[in-house]
Amino acid sequence: MSEQSLSIAITAAIKAGKKIRQIYNEPGIDLSIEKKSDNSPLTIADKASHDIIKQFLEQTGLPTLSEEGRNISFEERKNWKKFWLVDPLDGTKEFIKRNGEFTVNIALITDRKPVAGVIYVPVTGVLYAGITGKGAWKLVATDSDISLSELMNKGDKLPCSSLPDTFTIVESRSHRNKKTENYINKLKEKYGTVNTIIIGSSLKICMVAEGTAHLYPRFGPTMEWDTAAGHAIANSVGEKLLLMDSTDELTYNKENLKNPDFIAGTSGL
Predict the structure, then answer these.
(1) Quick one: CA torsion of 173, 101, 263, 167, rounded to 10 degrees?
(2) What are the tens digits of pLDDT across the range 195-227?
(3) Pairwise CA distance, residues 6 & 181, whole Å
(4) CA distances from 129 to 57, 113, 162, 240, 243 (A)
């Protein structure tokens, strides 16, 4: 993994995020269309972000698997050793609700494992990036081109805070279910008091990586592009995304791109 390649991914995420923000903030725009249609703001933002990211990542010579890209068969991609895995706009419901909790996710996968990740938050300009074996960083309010070396010099190295004294979990704003409630109740039996933070998109994994939450349990469907960038950043600081009730981590480029239930973070387990 070259620093130049990750710098390209960082630039791609920021450029795509700026375009999403432009659409999101357009005066009079109606974000209330939940179902995607060709002219919905959500679809326009998704596709614009995908096109920008694809243009930049082509410079690396590696293939790209994107939520908004063409449907690439498993037969075609099964022998990919290294590729980019992209979610051009993660947090559809948060985009529609206008709460700002949506992200641009870019991950580099090598031998089915996430080895580098970039997450950019268009509304706040917060940037996360990490490389396994080197570390991860967070830079607040960046909105201009920045290289990996500049991020490493100017950003906060993760984890950037000590874990809370009260056991803290982060959960989905839009996808809570009975299994999640049961899991939280078991944690309360173990720890007495459990603090819950509710937030959207891949920001949940980022909170585990930066040390503001112990765990993020996820019961219910996610796709590989939802988790890969956050997974790489978590791995970069020694955290893991484990299959529920297992010591095995999520893997990528499966024939079925859906993830099983998982838990992000190992603190307290």
Answers:
(1) -80
(2) 999 999 999 999 999 999 999 999 998 999 999
(3) 38
(4) 16, 16, 19, 16, 23
Query: Any idea which residue has 């978590």 for tokens?
Result: 234
Residue 119 tokens read as: 């997450």
* 79, 67 contact by CB (below 8 A): no
Computed on alpha carbons and rounded to an integer, the radius of gyration of the chain in Å comes to 18
For 1, the token pair is: 């993994």
State the Cα–Cα distance between residues 253 and 64, nearest whole angstrom.
Answer: 11
**Amino acid at position 244, single letter:** M
The percent of residues above 90 in pLDDT, for the chain, comes to 79
Tokens representing 94 are 């948060």
Could you give all domains of the chain from N- to C-terminal order, each with its CATH number?
Answer: 3-157 (3.30.540.10), 167-264 (3.40.190.80)
Structure confidence at residue 194 as a pLDDT band (50, 70, 90): very high
36 pLDDT band, cuts 50/70/90, is: low
C-beta of residue 19 within 8 angstroms of C-beta of residue 50: no
Dihedral sign computed on CA atoms, order 258, 87, 21, 237:
positive
How confident is the model over 60-111, as pLDDT tens digits? Answer: 999 999 999 878 999 999 999 999 999 999 998 899 889 999 999 999 999 9
Is residue 264 within 8 A of residue 216, CB to CB? The reply is yes
CB atoms within 10 A of CB 238: 13
